[in-house]
Amino acid sequence: IYLEDTSPLLGCYGNDLVQTPNIDSLARKGILFTHVFMPAPVCSPCRSSLITGMMATTLGVHNHHSSRTEASAIYLPDSVLTIPEIFNTQGYFTFNNGKDDYNFSYDREKLYDQAYLQHPLYGKKGDPIDLAILRDKAPFFGQIQLAGGKEIFSSSFGENNTHPVDRSVIQLPPYLPEHPAIIEEYANHLDAIQITDRKVGEIMKGLADHELLENTVIFFFSDHGMRLTRHKQFLYDGGLHVPLIVADFRSGQKLKPGTINDQLISGLDLGITALSLAGITPPGYMEGQDIFNTKIPPRTHVISTRDRCDFTIDRIRSVRSKDFKYIRNFMTDRPYSQLTYMDVDGVEFVKVMKALHAAQKLDSVQVKFFRKDRPAEELYDLDEDPFEIRNLASDPNYADVRTEMSAILDQWIQDSGDKGQFPENEEGLKLMLGIWGKNALNPEYDRIRRTYPDLEGSLWSLKSAGWVKPL
Fold first, then answer.
1. How far apart are alpha carbons 147 and 159 in whole angstroms?
2. pTM above 0.90?
3. Is position 292 within any domain?
4. What's the chain's Rg over C-alpha atoms?
C-alpha cells in the first residue's frame, strides 16, 4: 500500500490529533518502523530508486520527470531488472494500481500484467484491477497506490473530510509561522491522512473478503514527506521521513506482530526485503539490504539526494545517521526559496510565506529559509535539535562528526558514480523549458533559450493533457 506525500503523523506514530484506526490496526498486526528515510524527497526519483533497488543517481534517472519524450529517453542497462520484473520471472502476477512515475523508458508489459494509461508529462499508470481476480492469480506482487497527502487535491476532499482535525490545537514546527494559511495547510494534511485511513480499511476488507490475506505480506509506506516549507523537495527529515509498517499474514508467520523497530531503514531496502520474504535472492547490483536479515549489520546511515525538481535545478546530498544529519549544498548561490512549481501554481502557503518574509514578519528561525545564499554544509544534532534548526557545521565541537559524515558522502559519490555531478542532457532541459517557459530561471536554460528561441512555454499544454490508452 503505497502512499503519496505522507509524513508519519499517524495515530500509531503518536499523533493524537488524527483518527487512523485501520492503519493503527495494521501496525498492531505487524512491525512499525520509526526511522525510515527515502532516497529522494520528490516522487519520480524516489519511485525510480525503489522500483530498481538502486539510487536514481547511480542510474542517471535522478532528475524529476526525466524520459518523458523519446528524444530524452534514458534506458536502464540490460543487466538491471526492476523489482516487478524479477517477481514476474519467478511466476508472480504483478500489478500496480496507480502511477509508476519512473524516470527511465521501459516496456510496461514487462513489469506489470495489466492494462495501463499514459500521460506526456506524468508517465504511465496501471488501469486498476479488481482485487477479486487475484484469487486466481496467486502468487502475486502488487502495489496499490493511494493519494495520501494529495487527497487535498481531490474534488471530493471536502465531502470526504467528515471529521476535520481541530485547527486550534495544532502545534507547528518552529520553522513555520503561526499563520492561518500555514495552519490550514498542515491541518489539511492531517485530514488527508484520516481519509487515507478509511481507504486502507477498504483495502484490508477487500483482501480479507476475497481470502487473500492468508499468505500475504503487506508493506504500508509513503514515497516521501508532505508538501510544506522545508519538507517535500528538501533533505530535512520533513521531506524524507516516512511511515513504514510491514505485516505478515502468512500461516506460520515469521515476523512478530505488534513490535516497534527503530533501526535505520532506507527506502532502497523495501524491494530487496520483499524479494527476500518471497524466497527470491536479490541481484547483487541492488544497493538496498534485507531489513530482516540478522546476519548483516544494521545500517549506520542513509544517503538521500535532491536534483532538478520540475524546472528548478539544484543539487543537494545528505547523510543521516541515528544521531546526526549532514547536508551538502552544491549550488550555494541558489536560495532555498528559489522559484518552484508551487509558486507557478499559486499555492497559498507559499505565497503567505513569501509575503511574511517581505513584510519582515518571520522570526530568526523562519527567516533562514529565505536567505539569498546557502551554506555549503549543514550539520544537525538530531537528539538535541530534531527540527534541524541549528547548523553545527562550523562548530569546532562537532568537527570530527562533520569530517566523518563528509567523508562518507565523498566515498559514496565515488563508489556509486553519482551522476548528479554531471550536467543534464539537452533534451531533458528542453522539455522543462518548453513546459514551464519563463519560470525556468536557472542559468542552465540560457543556452537552450538561445538555441531554440521559440521553445519557451510552447509545451505548457502538456501539463493539462489527459491520460490515454497507449496506441
1. 16
2. yes
3. yes
4. 22
The Cα 456–Cα 437 span in angstroms is 4
Q: Are residues 94 and 159 in the same domain?
A: yes
d(CA 164, CA 237): 25
Q: Could you tell me if 286 and 335 lie in one domain?
A: no
Residue-wise DSSP of 380-401: EETTT-TT--S--TT-GGGHHH
Residue 98 carries which side chain, given as an amino acid letter?
G
Percent of the chain with pLDDT over 90: 97
| The pLDDT of residue 199 is above 90 | yes
CA-based angle 31:36:37, to the nearest 5? 165
d(CA 198, CA 21): 8
For the chain, how many structural domains are there in total? 3
The pLDDT of residue 267 is 98
* Domain identity same for 266 and 327: no
**CATH classification of the domain holding 270:** 3.40.720.10
Can you give the pLDDT at residue 313? 98
Round to whole Å and give the CA distance between 458 and 59.
30
- DSSP 3-state of 325: strand
Q: Quote the crossing angle between the two packed helices 180-209 and 348-358, to the nearest 10°.
A: 160
| Residues 257 and 338 placed together within one structural domain of the fold | no
Render pLDDT for 352-402 as a digit per residue (tens, 0 to 9).
999 999 999 999 999 999 999 999 999 999 999 999 999 999 999 999 999
CA distances from residue 241 to 202, 231, 319, 326 in whole angstroms, order as listed:
25, 9, 13, 15
Angle of CA points 226, 232, 233, to nearest 5°:
170
Alpha carbon distance 173, 196 (integer Å): 23
Domain identity same for 408 and 438: no
261 has which bridge partners?
Answer: 33
User: Residues near 203 by Cβ (< 8 Å), separated by ≥ 6?
Assistant: 1, 131, 144
**Mean pLDDT of the 189-199 span:** 98
Distance, in Å, from the CA atom of 284 to the CA atom of 265, rounded to the nearest integer, reads: 19
- Domain with 108 in it: 2-299
Per-residue model confidence (pLDDT) at position 214: 87
